[in-house]
Each structure stands twice: as structure tokens, then as C-alpha cells.
Amino acid sequence: MNESQLLEFAKKYTAAWCSQNAGSVAAFYAEDGSLKINDGNPSVGRSEITEAAQSFMTAFPDMVVKMDAIESNGKGAIYRWTLTGTNNGPGGSGNSVNISGNEEWSFDSDDLIAKSKGHFDSEEYDRQLEIS
């Protein structure tokens, strides 16, 4: 994938996260692709990736993901993002969240994400979610 293709891929991936359609996020992954968030267990396969994306979309019905940068790193890319939203989902705190992070991507031969290792400051995220 060249730089302009990678940028277009990342823009569409960002739009998928903002769509409130978790399946559209999973469509960017290989059938057996994986998404690991911080130190959690990886979500493997599109069904589990859909569930992981849906958990964020449910917790933050007004969620907006902004792409901060996309950088090729040879065999893959680093996608930098900022998530904003209000935790108004079931059992939510009603607090707003503004958190930045990144995903380290590796791609399969079809230019789909084979592995994504996501990172964000979970302590800061939890602090923002705390019920006042």
C-alpha cells in the first residue's frame, strides 16, 4: 500500500469508527485479523472485532474519532487518533471523555489489517469516566 492509499484507508477507517456501525470497523480487518486494546485479550476475527467496536459505540453514542496522523513503518503503519464522546450508554457516568492513542497495524496480502495493537492511557480514561 502506497502513502496515498494508506491515507485513504485510514480516513475510511476513521469514518467507520464514527459511523455507529461496528461491522463497518471489522470490515477493515482480515477474516482472522485481531484487535488488541492495551493489555486486554485480543479480539480475533471480524465477529469479535465487531463486538469490541460495539462496546465503545454503545458506551459513547455520540463518539467521534479523529485521525491525528498515519505513518507507514515499513511492514505496516501507526494510526494515531483522538476519541471524544459522552459516556451516556447503559450504566454510563454521563461524563465526557477526550483520549488519544494509537494502533500499530500490520497488513495481510489483501491490504486488510491482520493485527492491530491499540494503546491509550487507561488510567486517564478511567479518571475521565469516574462519576463525580
Description:
This protein is α+β, with helices and mostly antiparallel strands and about 130 residues long. The protein is built from four helices and six strands. Strands 2-1-6-5-4-3 form a six-stranded mixed sheet. A hairpin with a 3-residue loop joins strand 3 (about 65-70) and strand 4. The chain is globular and about 45 Å long. The model has no long low-confidence stretch (mean pLDDT about 95).
- Residues in helix, %: 25-40%
Task: List the strand order in the largest sheet.
Answer: 2-1-6-5-4-3
Q: Give Rg in angstroms.
A: 14 Å
Number of strands: 6
Structural class: alpha+beta
**What is the string of helix and strand elements?**
HHEEHEEEEH
Mind sketching the topology for me?
Elements: H1 3-18, H2 22-26, E1 29-37, E2 43-44, H3 45-59, E3 64-72, E4 76-86, E5 96-107, E6 113-120, H4 122-129
Parallel strand pairs: 1-6
Antiparallel strand pairs: 1-2, 3-4, 4-5, 5-6
Please supply descriptive tags for the structure shown above.
132 residues, alpha+beta, six-stranded mixed beta sheet, globular
Short description:
The chain has 132 residues and is an alpha+beta fold. It has helices at residues 3-18, 22-26, 45-59, 122-129, and strands spanning 29-37, 43-44, 64-72, 76-86, 96-107, 113-120.
